[in-house]
Amino acid sequence: MENRSLTFSTTNGHSSPPNEGRPFSYGLARSTSTSTSGKYPPPVMRRATTSEVGVTSHGYHVPTSPISRTPPGSTGSTNPSDGSPVSRGSHCGSFKQSDSGFLDNAVPPSLSANTSSFVSSLANAGSECPKHSQEALKYYCQLHDELVCADCLAMEPRHQGHTHTRAEDLASSYRSSLLSQLQPLQEMSIEASAALKSMAARRKEISENEETVKESIKMTVLQLHRQLDSRERELIEEAEKISQQKLQHHDAHQDHLQRLTTEMQQVVDSVSVAANDNTNIILCHHKQLSEWVLESTRKYQSLPKEVFTPLQGPNISFVPDAGVLEMCQTIGSVTERQADPQRCYIDESSIKNLTVNQDCVLRLVIHDKDGKPYTTHVKGIKAEAVSTSTGSQLDVSIEQDQTKKHQYNISMVPQEAGTYVVKVKISNTLIQNSPITLNVGSVVHGTLVGDIKGVLQPYGITVSPSDEIVVVENGKDCVSLYRSDGKLLKSYSGKGKLKFNRPRGITITPSNMLLVTDDEGIKQCTLEGKHMTAFGKIGSGPLEFSFPCGLGVSNDGKIYICDTFNHRIQVLNIDLTFHHYLGIEGAPPAKLVQPYDIAFDSSGKIFVADYSDHSVKMFTPQGGFIGQITSKGENEVLKNPVSVHVNKNDHVFVGEEKNSGLSVYDSSGKYLTMIPVRSSGAYGISSDSEGCVYISDRANRRVQIFK
């Protein structure tokens, strides 16, 4: 829309002649003659002077000074011709700033009481001139601060000789300004609406919390009532039982005394009658009567005094526990304690056994601001787990531990191996050690990546801290060291009495010494085969062995040796002195039959391959029997397991004598998968820091490497 300025003048010479270079304005002049039609003559158009208009960059008129506002009680503007006051709106019933209540103030008078009247005034503002019917209020008189129609400008002298602006052009400018000013208020209104919703939600939360607390109080008191009622019955029964026992003893004593009293009274009554009433009886039987009296007197005098004394003893009483009364006053308290996110954390010791398609459970520990366990149910716990490689998010469930109420189990099932970032929030605030990173390993180590050929009947196998592969070659009576690429580094057999004799099991101690079992006992040496010593002998006592096989070092540094034909495991101290036996006590399956190999997971749990029992036995670090693994999958069972190994991810690998494959389990004994190893008996299993799995393929004279 074009922005034009309008000026109106009569034909008495007040209008200016055309002047090039000045902005155009249109002059509407009323003729001194009166048309026969009674209508106004056509307007005369002229240019406005620069003093009459404000010029924008586009050459159109815009008011150059702020809009004048007339305070209440003012008489209005003055007439430019004579200086006399002009009453605004006295001639034109137009929409004015002062009348509307809107343009009088930059901000509405109130956001409460005056808002309704303010909005009403906007709605009632007219678009037609009330004086000149059906004439639109198209122009704005800056001098008189009024909206006027074309007839008003033509007819009213006070509207002539000065600048007027098209109302729509000025309104457009004001509209843009108003909308710009309105934006912050709109944003605040949106924020206020959101705050109201939050307040409503908070109010609902407070009410629900109140009901929850009241229900908790009722349940606590109800449980207390039940316990008190139960204890009341027990105490009453106990009091009745003791009283009944006392009454039984008392009644028996009383009955006995009653019989004695009756007997004595019979003697007294009989002798008294005879002595007073019958002379013949006295004369004839006085001797017998006298003896009767004397005998009865002696009899009753000989009775102990207790017979004539009520049974004594303490009376029962109830002694209330003062603590109970205090407890009733302190059965609980209503408090505003709440979980403090900065005091809550994921117990990182619970993070283990992270494998694809298996439950991953994190333990969340809840404390309040004082660091005390917070057992009240927390509603605002949220957790998310996101893969760093794909960005996919895992489904996460959160459940409160029913035994330890201040702990929650956060469960998820990773669908693929990789790294996951887990964030845990309480009331939208991250907990102490969030986010945490989880490394999820693949279960299937089924890709053959290499092998080491020419190993004569490989048996036990282990990997050194520097990832050297140490293999027992049973067919050569030696130990060989290889690089991961298969290059032989060293091989040694020992000398003289220290020579290996059909070696089988092997392990590395924390001091980096090798321990090797053979037919004669145990050999010890360095990784290079130096400083070799021997201990143990054939027999059935401590440090005596019969066909020792696999061995290993526990998390606490103890050495466990499978004493196979003695049906036990010997446990030695780090200095190779005897400590105790494992697997000799209890009934099957806790009792070992032919232990062949042994391994330990990160928690210290013990796994024993029991050859003749076709199982892998599981024991606690203290030696308590937990259970056994006997199957692999749904329809297959273990058959003569000869090797067992636990890798860094706590995956348990089991090799069998004749089956060509390794069964893989988690540390609880749950079957995971099978590695399709083409071998005839995996007599040794180990793994390195990169996750490679090494298998002694005895019949094929090689070590296979899988990943």
From TrEMBL:
<keyword id="KW-0863">Zinc-finger</keyword>
<dbReference type="Pfam" id="PF00630">
    <property type="entry name" value="Filamin"/>
</dbReference>
<protein>
    <recommendedName>
        <fullName>B box-type domain-containing protein</fullName>
    </recommendedName>
</protein>
<feature type="compositionally biased region" description="Polar residues">
    <location>
        <begin position="65"/>
        <end position="84"/>
    </location>
</feature>
<keyword id="KW-0862">Zinc</keyword>
<dbReference type="GO" id="GO:0003723">
    <property type="term" value="F:RNA binding"/>
</dbReference>
<dbReference type="InterPro" id="IPR001298">
    <property type="entry name" value="Filamin/ABP280_rpt"/>
</dbReference>
<dbReference type="InterPro" id="IPR001258">
    <property type="entry name" value="NHL_repeat"/>
</dbReference>
<dbReference type="GO" id="GO:0000932">
    <property type="term" value="C:P-body"/>
</dbReference>
<dbReference type="GO" id="GO:0000209">
    <property type="term" value="P:protein polyubiquitination"/>
</dbReference>
<dbReference type="GO" id="GO:0043161">
    <property type="term" value="P:proteasome-mediated ubiquitin-dependent protein catabolic process"/>
</dbReference>
<feature type="repeat" description="NHL">
    <location>
        <begin position="579"/>
        <end position="622"/>
    </location>
</feature>
<dbReference type="InterPro" id="IPR050952">
    <property type="entry name" value="TRIM-NHL_E3_ligases"/>
</dbReference>
<dbReference type="InterPro" id="IPR017868">
    <property type="entry name" value="Filamin/ABP280_repeat-like"/>
</dbReference>
<feature type="compositionally biased region" description="Polar residues">
    <location>
        <begin position="1"/>
        <end position="18"/>
    </location>
</feature>
<dbReference type="GO" id="GO:0061630">
    <property type="term" value="F:ubiquitin protein ligase activity"/>
</dbReference>
<dbReference type="InterPro" id="IPR011042">
    <property type="entry name" value="6-blade_b-propeller_TolB-like"/>
</dbReference>
<feature type="repeat" description="Filamin">
    <location>
        <begin position="336"/>
        <end position="440"/>
    </location>
</feature>
<feature type="region of interest" description="Disordered">
    <location>
        <begin position="1"/>
        <end position="97"/>
    </location>
</feature>
<feature type="repeat" description="NHL">
    <location>
        <begin position="532"/>
        <end position="575"/>
    </location>
</feature>
<dbReference type="Pfam" id="PF00643">
    <property type="entry name" value="zf-B_box"/>
</dbReference>
<dbReference type="GO" id="GO:0008270">
    <property type="term" value="F:zinc ion binding"/>
</dbReference>
<dbReference type="InterPro" id="IPR000315">
    <property type="entry name" value="Znf_B-box"/>
</dbReference>
<keyword id="KW-0479">Metal-binding</keyword>
<dbReference type="Pfam" id="PF01436">
    <property type="entry name" value="NHL"/>
</dbReference>
<keyword id="KW-0677">Repeat</keyword>
<feature type="domain" description="B box-type">
    <location>
        <begin position="124"/>
        <end position="167"/>
    </location>
</feature>
<dbReference type="InterPro" id="IPR014756">
    <property type="entry name" value="Ig_E-set"/>
</dbReference>
